[in-house]
Design a protein that fits this description.
- The protein is mainly α.
- The protein has 2 domains: 4-103, 434 Repressor (Amino-terminal Domain) (Orthogonal Bundle); 121-219, Arc Repressor Mutant, subunit A, CATH 1.10.10.
- Helix content is 51%, strand content 5%.
- It has helices spanning 27-34, 38-45, 54-63, 68-82, 86-103, 121-124, 127-135, 139-142, 146-152, 156-168, 195-212, 229-252; strands at residues 4-6, 18-20, 172-175, 178-181.
- The chain has a two-stranded antiparallel ribbon. The protein has a two-stranded antiparallel sheet with strand order 3-4.
- The longest helix is centred in the C-terminal third of the chain and has 24 residues, at 229-252.
Length: 270
């Protein structure tokens, strides 16, 4: 067997997941490295035989390149599957679910530091303040702030108020005739008390902007589809991986223009 290997325990997702290993991988090779028979490993993977031992599962995780965190997660799942004590199984299930939920949050996949619940409330509930701040990261606008006003559709008074607020919040600093951004990478956690307000205001501002732009400058995609919960989790995991890729791409790109990307995934029927 080559290509994909399906594990009986999941790798951070709520459903069975797979790991792409390329044509160099075979069951026989993995069994040899772990020190077990190929037929035994095949039965385990088909959930037709006993579970792997802790040492065997550890060896497989190492061979497949799992991180220490992922290996620990697998060991917890194995312990849960083998435990005969209801109280311990419940405790392990709660631990597994907590780790899974933590891994499904955006901050587990990006390096931008999260801000605390009381920090910068004024900043995150004002989309024009956020956009003004981001515009100041562009060299061509940093020394000519009047262009920011025309770009965002702000009056001179509104722009002046935004710049003053950003200075007061410590987000920018005026030096050498221009503004220098002090904090250019932040993440607002979903459990922040201002997250819902932030999300609503950002969505409204995004829609307003998209309505004004020609179709070739505002790409939008929306789809409603029928699936199940495990598929939703797989889609979310795929997006979180994409998010980490986007962050690296944005960090390595020259600061020439300002862009925004939105993504929504939610249910209608539950």
């Amino acid at each position: 067997m080559t290509g994909h290997l399906t594990l009986g325990v999941d790798r951070w997702s709520c459903s069975t997941s797979y790991i792409s290993l390329g044509n160099r991988f075979t069951f026989e090779r993995l069994a040899y490295r772990v020190g077990i028979q190929k037929s035994y490993l095949s039965r385990v993977m088909r959930t037709e035989g006993p579970n792997l031992s802790e040492d065997q599962l550890y060896a497989i995780a190492v061979d497949l390149g799992f991180s220490a965190e992922e290996s620990h997660f697998l060991q917890l799942q194995l312990a849960h599957a083998r435990s005969g004590l209801r109280a311990r199984r419940d405790e392990l299930a709660a631990t597994i679910d907590g780790l899974r939920r933590a891994h499904q949050r955006s901050e587990a996949h990006i390096s931008a530091p999260a801000v605390g619940p009381a920090e910068l409330t004024e900043f995150f509930v004002n989309p024009e303040l956020i956009l003004t701040h981001m515009c100041l990261s562009l060299p061509r606008l940093r020394h000519d702030v009047r262009q920011i006003g025309s770009t965002l559709g702000l009056s001179g008074e509104e722009l002046t108020a935004n710049l003053a607020a950003l200075e007061r919040l410590g987000m920018v600093k005026l030096e050498d005739g221009g503004y220098r951004v002090q904090h250019d990478r932040m993440h607002l956690p979903v459990d922040s008390p201002v997250f819902r307000a932030y999300r609503s205001m950002q969505r409204l501002k995004s829609l307003e902007r998209c309505q004004r732009l020609p179709s070739d400058r505002a790409y939008s995609f929306s789809v409603a589809f029928a699936a199940n919960e495990s598929t939703r989790q797989e889609i979310k995991q795929a997006f979180l991986g994409f998010l980490a890729t986007v962050e690296k791409m944005a960090q390595g790109a020259p600061d020439e223009d300002l862009y925004q990307m939105n993504f929504d995934l939610f249910d209608w029927s539950r």
